[in-house]
Amino acid sequence: MKKSLVGVFAAVLVWFWVSHASGIGRITNDMVSDFIAPFYSGLGDLILYLLFGTLFYVTGIFLYHLYSLQQFKKKIILGFDSVRKTVRQLFFGQPPSAEPAADSRAERLWKIAREDSDSFYSQLFHGLSEDDLKSKQDFLSACEIRVQDLSAQRKQSLSYYNFISITAPTLGFLGTAVGMVALFDDIGIAPAEKLAGDLKIALITTVVGLSIRFLALFCKTFLESMQDDVSTATVAGLKEILA
Asked: Does pTM surpass 0.90?
């Protein structure tokens, strides 16, 4: 692999030296430029449309994530009373007579939690062992670890914003480069309106790309902060139950 790269690099250097020494290099450059010109002349407009589409898409995804997180908080609040009753029953009271006495605390907890397999508390209590329920402190420590794990899993869905915050400025800088190339290509042969349009594309693509980056980072930070608040409130609620 390295030898092939070195060979290609050496061949390019030899071609560059031979072409410029013989005068072919200038002709080759003009031919390549004239061949590429029709493709990049409209590329700036395409990049601008892509950036504006990305801007609206990021806004829509942010609103969706915000709505999902609000619904997630509502589910936690609605299920808190039943969880309070269950946990207090396990640590402060006797198990219901309908349940076999041989059932462990973990088994009784999971029987109640699995009634709603989609709830957050079902995911929270899933996997807790009898060792995690020996005492209130052990139970609280195990729940804190589970809350952190579930919070990290939900934050993984926000990695999309990292991708956008890198891609959007790159597209913006590409639009700037394309616009400047088109501007220099039109100097001397195009009217002032065409030159102004090329310059506008070169500048506005960078502005839009950087704006999308700031928006994506803000959305990601805001949603992560809300997720952390939910996790903190969940742990605080469990502490209040066991107080």
From this structure: no
